[in-house]
Amino acid sequence: MFEYLKIAWRNLWRSKRRTLITVASIFLGVILCTLMASMQEGVYAKMIDNAVRFYSGYIQLQDTAYWDHKSINNTMAWSDPLYNKVKETHGVKSVTPRLESFSLMSNGDKTKGGAFIGIDPEKENAISNLSHWVKKGEYLNSNDDGILLAVNLAKYLGVGLGDTVVMISQGYHGASAAGLFPVRGILEFPSPTMNSFGAYAEISHAQQFFTANNRITSLVIMVDEYDQVNHIQRNIKSQIGDAYTVMNWEELQPELVQMIESDRGGGVIMKAILYLLIGFGILSTIIMMLSERRREMGVMIAVGMQKAKLSLILFYETILIGILGVIAGFAISIPLIYILIQNPIPLSDKIAEAYIEFGLEPIIYFDASLPVFTDQVLIVFIITLIISIYPVLNVARLKLSKALRS
Amino acid sequence: MSVINIKNLKKIYNDTGVPVNAVNGIDLTINEGEFTAIVGPSGSGKTTFLNMLGGLDKPTVGEIHINGTQVEKLSASKLINFRLNNIGFVFQAYNLIPVLTAKENVEFIMHLQGKPKKEREARTKELLTAVGLEDRMDSRPGKLSGGQQQRVAVARALASRPRFILADEPTANLDSKSTENLLDMMEKMNKEENITFVFSTHDARVVKKARRVITIEDGKIVSDERKN
Ligand SMILES: Nc1ncnc2c1ncn2[C@@H]1O[C@H](COP(=O)(O)OP(=O)(O)OP(=O)(O)O)[C@@H](O)[C@H]1O
Ligand SMILES: [Mg+2]
Model ipTM? Predict the structure, then answer.
């Protein structure tokens, strides 16, 4: 085998320029595709991270009726034993209760709907680091009667620190809910969607407002290891039985998952087109190479080389071109991606505005998860594998007497 | 003892629509240790004949027996192994694998035979020394003269220890000095090791060295002379 690999390797360098051009095309393709994949995955990871950290958590525990009917009536009772059970499940980092519902918020003649979320300030902070996003004023204390208001809502309502917002909503089992909440702080998130999202109040005050004493809509759970989510979800389920629904972030945010999947699909099509072009480049190199070497291949078979062995050499040549291209590509793209991960690219002007309008952060993040690289290796390998069918067929069909006369 | 036995050999090419009787009924026996030249005008069918004889091309009609094996009946893959172990080939030009050195070209055959490295190296050295190229063992064919390349080709043809070597115009691209060298060398191998040689040629000086001369015209043997 080593002997044939040696011949294959030397054959590659018989026409140096052609091999280099072919390798360069793979090299560029690999760089482009790793960068693209890295960027996509980076943006997705950030989106997931935003969604999970700011809002859904990795796992949520809810009343069984809540997911289909997100009504204040489908809340569950807070229970210390339940909380402790979940908290002590292996791999769970932190747990916090929330009571949330829709509420109208108004100030003077301005009214807007938003989420009204009761939180345990301390526990919530351990999960979403909410206090970090307080741009003006103070974070809530454990017995606060005020609210934190997302910046765009505050702007719309024309309220500042110390101003009072009127909340009107539907309370537990038909009770009416109305209350006045002074603004303690203004929240400004990096994610534009979050900035119009709603208001946070201390949970016991929220419970009072909704006449939902001791009730919560969910326990929000963070985990230590992201890839352990499904495992932990199962463990929690088996511990608490069927009385509650336990969902992971993918189930909680199906739109996000779907959006990412469809965007990834778009990326796949682009990469496929790119690699198809590269594939034809490699194929044309192989075709030229074969046509130049007909006589030589004839001689090799004439003196006693089995066609399969000759095919093996040609197979090695094709694969080696692929390997060289991938190695060269990685030599550039790995350090490049490493630098880009450390220094995400901020977008400017128009593009940034467009991003914000779509609810995205105007920064391009990069990611170095394994598939970003292994996918390219796999694709190039599959392409070269498919292309190497050609020389194999070509050798199989080679007519010895004709090849020797050429 | 006969090495080669040919009965009613015919080859009809039909790829142009007009059938060409390139070889048109040849019966021939070649004995062990013969040094035979095949001569004849251009287009008379020498290459076609030698290709069939070497198992490189299938006859349309007829039988070829080499060392007791009926060659044209072998399957493609068995035929390749038969050639590897029984026949040495020297072609007119571009015989060698260009990316391998002289040494590697000779070793290549024994590699195909699965011979151990020690044996391969020893025999390669011995053969390249015998053809007078012990100091050019590590040169690639492109760095060798035409005559040197043909001598490497002969060394390679001998590498598998065949009893029979086929050479289609081995000297056609050589000057007279290299031609003489190559022929002397072939003659030496023939005499010392009793290897059977069959070669085609247009060159009168080469014909002179042969001990048997078979003339072909229009795909048929028109004369068969033995000298002493
Ligand atoms: N593949 C082929 N298809 C059709 N005709 C062919 C083919 N190969 C050879 N021929 C014809 O067969 C005849 C014999 O050719 P061959 O090459 O065997 O002659 P040759 O004696 O070796 O000639 P030269 O001395 O020029 O090498 C010629 O008429 C040639 O044109
Ligand atoms: Mg000829």
Answer: 0.94
| A368 pLDDT above the threshold of 90 | no
Write out pLDDT tens, residues A26-37.
999 999 999 999
- CA separation, residue A215 to residues A94, A171, B146 (Å): 19, 12, 97
How do residues A163-194 score in pLDDT, each as one tens digit? 999 999 999 988 889 999 999 999 998 777 88
CA A380 to chain centre: 24
Can you read off the two tokens belonging to residue B134? 């012990």
DSSP conformation class of B164? E
Could you read off the pLDDT of A333-350 as tens digits, one per residue?
999 999 998 998 888 888
Does the C-beta of B42 come closer than 6 Å to ligand 1? Answer: yes
For A400, which of B57, B84, B112 is closest by C-beta distance? B57
Range A233-259 average pLDDT: 90
Confidence band (pLDDT; 50, 70, 90) for B92? confident
Is A136 or B174 the better-scoring residue by pLDDT? Answer: A136
| Among protein residues, the one whose CA lies closest to atom 29 of ligand 1 | B43
Give percent above pLDDT 90 in chain A.
Answer: 65
Pocket test for ligand 1, best of B10, B23, B48, B199 (most atoms within 8 A of CB): B48
Q: Minimum-distance ligand to the CA of B22?
A: 1
Residue B228 has pLDDT above 90, yes or no: no
CATH of domain B35-60+68-226: 3.40.50.300
Smallest Cα–Cα separation from A397: which of A302, A286, A311? A311
CA distance A1 to chain B (A): 11
- Range scoring the smallest mean pLDDT among A80-94, A102-116, A205-219, A369-383: A369-383
Give yes or no for residue B20 CB within 6 A of ligand 1. Answer: yes
Task: Identify the pLDDT of residue A358.
Answer: 63
Helix (H) or strand (E) holding B185: helix B176-193
Q: Which amino acid is at A180?
A: L
Whether residue A359 has pLDDT greater than 70: no
Please answer whether residues A247 and A55 qualify as being in contact, where contact means their C-beta atoms are separated by less than 8 angstroms: no
State the DSSP code for B134.
Answer: G
Task: Enumerate chain B positions whose Cβ falls within 8 A of a Cβ in A.
Answer: 47, 51, 54, 56-57, 76-77, 80-81, 83-85, 89, 91, 94-100, 108-109, 111-113, 156-157, 160
Pocket residue to mutate for ligand 1, from B21, B38, B39, B47, most atoms within 8 A of Cβ? B47
